[in-house]
Amino acid sequence: MTPDESVVSSFKRAAAERAVDFIQSGMVVGLGTGSTAAFAVRKLAVLLAEGTLKDVVGVPTSRTTEALATSLGVPLTTLDVHPVVDLTIDGADEVAPDLSLIKGGGGALLREKIVAQASRREVIIVDAPKLSPRLGTKWPVPVEVLPFGWRSQSLFLESLGARVTVRLALDGAPFHTDQGNVVLDCDFGPINDAAALAARLDSRAGVMAHGLFLNLTTDLVVAGPDGITHRVR
Ligand SMILES: O=C(CO)[C@H](O)[C@H](O)COP(=O)(O)O
């Protein structure tokens, strides 16, 4: 890990551990996906192991998070058993001033959005460089599409003005989400009307999810050289 990576990692960890302070015993907690959210899972596991927190169960937003939580002894549940989540802690790829997000860099966008929509409180944790003046400035919008007809979806997304890249796995084959879908990373550049774009994407058959998380964030915890800030929407 280079010095810069270790510094970024320390900020991610600081934001994550601050968010874990919001968890109370007895809660159903949404467990996000990505490197920042992983710090929150680790901290939660420690608090449970030492008895500081009790009777907390987690709803993982990906198989990766499920495996991490299981390995650390964090009790898990499902939305079938607990259809309402008290508090979710998750990361983001880009955060706009109105706390709208681009998520999906780790490919978990569909389950993350389902859990976010089921949550009373959605606490987003980021390091400071994730903050952006406008969505799309720093990160493409991931769009999860059914493998059936994905090339037609690519042409549709290009017609909306995106430069489309098929996300690849480490072996060079197309990446597949936990649901077996394909992810098309769509570079729209700075997005003027995220709500209108989200509506267009939501109305397209075969688009299973997109990374525009609008009106879902309740809390934002940011860690950077100036310390940790917590904003409530
Ligand atoms: O949306 C996500 C996964 O689908 C992640 O929360 C997002 O990509 C941020 O990841 P990291 O904390 O590793 O930067």
From TrEMBL:
<keyword id="KW-0413">Isomerase</keyword>
<comment type="function">
    <text>Catalyzes the reversible conversion of ribose-5-phosphate to ribulose 5-phosphate.</text>
</comment>
<protein>
    <recommendedName>
        <fullName>Ribose-5-phosphate isomerase A</fullName>
        <ecNumber>5.3.1.6</ecNumber>
    </recommendedName>
</protein>
<dbReference type="InterPro" id="IPR020672">
    <property type="entry name" value="Ribose5P_isomerase_typA_subgr"/>
</dbReference>
<feature type="binding site">
    <location>
        <begin position="33"/>
        <end position="36"/>
    </location>
    <ligand>
        <name>substrate</name>
    </ligand>
</feature>
<feature type="active site" description="Proton acceptor">
    <location>
        <position position="112"/>
    </location>
</feature>
<feature type="binding site">
    <location>
        <begin position="103"/>
        <end position="106"/>
    </location>
    <ligand>
        <name>substrate</name>
    </ligand>
</feature>
<comment type="pathway">
    <text>Carbohydrate degradation; pentose phosphate pathway; D-ribose 5-phosphate from D-ribulose 5-phosphate (non-oxidative stage): step 1/1.</text>
</comment>
<feature type="binding site">
    <location>
        <position position="130"/>
    </location>
    <ligand>
        <name>substrate</name>
    </ligand>
</feature>
<dbReference type="InterPro" id="IPR004788">
    <property type="entry name" value="Ribose5P_isomerase_type_A"/>
</dbReference>
<feature type="binding site">
    <location>
        <begin position="90"/>
        <end position="93"/>
    </location>
    <ligand>
        <name>substrate</name>
    </ligand>
</feature>
<comment type="subunit">
    <text>Homodimer.</text>
</comment>
<dbReference type="Pfam" id="PF06026">
    <property type="entry name" value="Rib_5-P_isom_A"/>
</dbReference>
<dbReference type="GO" id="GO:0009052">
    <property type="term" value="P:pentose-phosphate shunt, non-oxidative branch"/>
</dbReference>
<comment type="similarity">
    <text>Belongs to the ribose 5-phosphate isomerase family.</text>
</comment>
<dbReference type="InterPro" id="IPR050262">
    <property type="entry name" value="Ribose-5P_isomerase"/>
</dbReference>
<dbReference type="InterPro" id="IPR037171">
    <property type="entry name" value="NagB/RpiA_transferase-like"/>
</dbReference>
<dbReference type="GO" id="GO:0004751">
    <property type="term" value="F:ribose-5-phosphate isomerase activity"/>
</dbReference>
